[in-house]
């Protein structure tokens, strides 16, 4: 029996609350253990190995202007961070990524749960999802700029609209595989929609939600760079546009790596632990 089922059947679980009993105290989160430290060390070693491969390829090509290696790019990255020259652009891009991510995840999660719980509505709207999910991001960005204007509203809307269909599909599939036994238990105990969402639906779709968040964040920041490249006056994408005009490949790679480092930090510190926690309840 899974932990979610046990919690529903226990006096402190959702069934107990439906019957009027007092909830049990929530378990305390365990401190990071050796397994987490080993995972972090393994990730760091993997990144170092990637840098080594990059250096070997650059050395084999022997063209620092067209294929700069870590010995050219990393000092430029360090100088840009230490001097503060990169920080305003990093902050602008991170703000756009955050706003687009929140908007896309909120709309996509709500739509996915609604379609998963309403099969008839899902059959009607499934072709819409297929169409919207296959519209190229560049087309959406250009249309938003033409319709709304070259402003922040258009930039964030373009990024969020590209992400919403994917989140909707992933969450809809998660709702489709809900445990029917738990749903029947909720019906028997006459749980309201809010309690059902909190105790039945969300714990089961949490892995799907974590997967959508991890995949979506990687997709969103790439689209944000396109948005900035085409129509903004700041951000990492705008800076890469300037480097492109000057044919500064070292600058392009340094600016890209600066934001990749930010995304890696978010993945290791936030999304990775949340994904592991979301899947923990499935353990026997």
Structural description of this entry:
The chain has helices spanning 3-9, 14-18, 34-61, 70-83, 87-117, 119-133, 137-148, 152-176, 180-188, 193-231, 236-245, 249-280. With 284 residues, the chain is an all-alpha fold. Helix 5 (87-117) packs antiparallel against helix 6 (119-133) and helix 7 (137-148) crosses helix 8. The N and C termini lie close together (7 Å). Residues 1-27 have low confidence and may be disordered.
Which helices and strands occur, and which strands form pairs?
Blueprint: H1 3-9, H2 14-18, H3 34-61, H4 70-83, H5 87-117, H6 119-133, H7 137-148, H8 152-176, H9 180-188, H10 193-231, H11 236-245, H12 249-280
Keywords:
284 residues, mainly alpha, 12 helices, globular, disordered N terminus
Which stretches of 5+ consecutive residues score pLDDT under 50? Answer: 1-27
Major sheet description: none
Distance between the termini: 7 Å
* Average pLDDT: 82
Number of helices: 12
Classify the beta-strand content into a percent band.
under 5%
Radius of gyration: 23 Å
Backbone structural class: mainly alpha
Order of helices and strands: HHHHHHHHHHHH
Q: Overall 3D geometry?
A: globular
Let me know the number of strands.
0
Range of helix content: over 70%
Write a concise synopsis of the structure shown.
The protein is mainly alpha-helical and 284 residues long. The chain contains 12 helices and no strands.
């Amino acid at each position: 029996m899974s932990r979610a089922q046990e919690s529903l059947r226990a006096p402190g679980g959702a069934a107990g609350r439906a019957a009027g009993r007092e909830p049990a105290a929530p378990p305390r989160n365990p401190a990071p253990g050796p397994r987490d430290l080993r995972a972090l060390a393994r990730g760091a070693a993997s990144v170092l190995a990637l840098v080594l491969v990059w250096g070997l390829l650059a050395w084999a090509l022997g063209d620092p202007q067209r294929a700069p290696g870590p010995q050219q790019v990393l000092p430029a990255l360090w100088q840009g961070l230490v001097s503060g020259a990169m920080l305003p652009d990093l902050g602008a891009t991170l703000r756009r990524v955050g706003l687009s991510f929140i908007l896309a995840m909120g709309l996509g999660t709500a739509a996915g749960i609604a379609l998963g719980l309403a099969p008839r509505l899902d059959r009607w709207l499934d072709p819409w999802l297929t169409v919207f999910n296959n519209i190229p991001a560049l087309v959406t960005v250009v249309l938003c700029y033409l319709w709304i204007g070259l402003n922040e509203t258009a930039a964030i809307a373009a990024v969020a609209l590209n992400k919403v269909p994917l989140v909707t599909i992933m969450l809809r599939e998660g709702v489709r595989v809900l445990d029917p036994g738990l749903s029947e238990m909720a019906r028997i105990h006459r749980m309201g929609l809010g309690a059902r969402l909190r105790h039945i639906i969300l714990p089961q779709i949490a892995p799907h939600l974590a997967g959508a968040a991890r995949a979506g964040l990687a997709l969103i920041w790439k689209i944000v760079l396109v948005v900035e490249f085409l129509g903004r006056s700041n951000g990492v994408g705008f800076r890469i546009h300037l480097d492109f005009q000057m044919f500064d490949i070292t600058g392009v790679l340094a600016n890209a790596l600066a934001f990749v480092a930010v995304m890696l930090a978010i993945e290791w510190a936030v999304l990775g632990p949340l994904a592991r926690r979301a899947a923990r309840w499935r353990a026997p």
